[in-house]
Amino acid sequence: MSNSLGNTTRLIGAGLRALLVLTLVCGVIYPLAVTGIAQGLFHHKANGSETTADGKVVGSELIGQRYDLPPKKGETPAPDLKWFQPRPSNGLGTNSVNTQYKLILSGATNRSGDNEQLIKWVKAAKAAVVKDNSTAGYKVRPSDVPAEAVTSSASGLDPHISPEYAELQAHRVAEKNNLDVNQVRKLIADHTDGRILGFMGEPRVNVLQLNIALTRTPPPASHH
Prior knowledge:
Helix content is 42%, strand content 7%. A hairpin with a 2-residue loop joins strand 1 (50-53) and strand 2 (56-60). It is elongated and about 95 Å long. The chain has a three-stranded antiparallel β-sheet. Strands 1-2 form a two-stranded antiparallel ribbon. It is mainly alpha-helical. It contains six helices and five strands, in the order ααββαβααββα. The chain has two domains: 2-44; 50-223, no CATH class.
């Protein structure tokens, strides 16, 4: 009996020592080491990839955000059409908390391609894109609207759009900001990132970076 009790005591003691050591290594030393390395070598990324403009933090290059007019009481905010617009942000649907690029929760609608509600929503979104981006001298055709202009990403937080969607918005942005459309097209070209390592993913444009560049673009001399 005393042998059995002694063995049990030794096992419990060994287990407690292992728990203490693993807690110290995995719960204190390792997190501190990783945090220190991240802050030392990847400070910008470790702190949320914050983007600044005129000395102020205006967002993160990793998280999308909306560009809306001030909301009227009881109404859904309307997009401010002087800015390039991101992908739709209601990735989790109307019953979700993530309807304004909020970070509490992220995810996709998980609706199938033949879901009636999804089809209705996509058609309405496409009609809005056509209407908002058509100008007196440039008419958007429904067939020109890329998929990401009417669907959210898997996370609902995608900060990028395709060069095609940015180009579709160029005429409207130029008109609203008294710019030449070629100026706006150059902005898009300058802020288009290619495929990672030349073959992974698709070319993309960071909407926040593009809109920051837009604020720094003066109208051509003829518009002064």
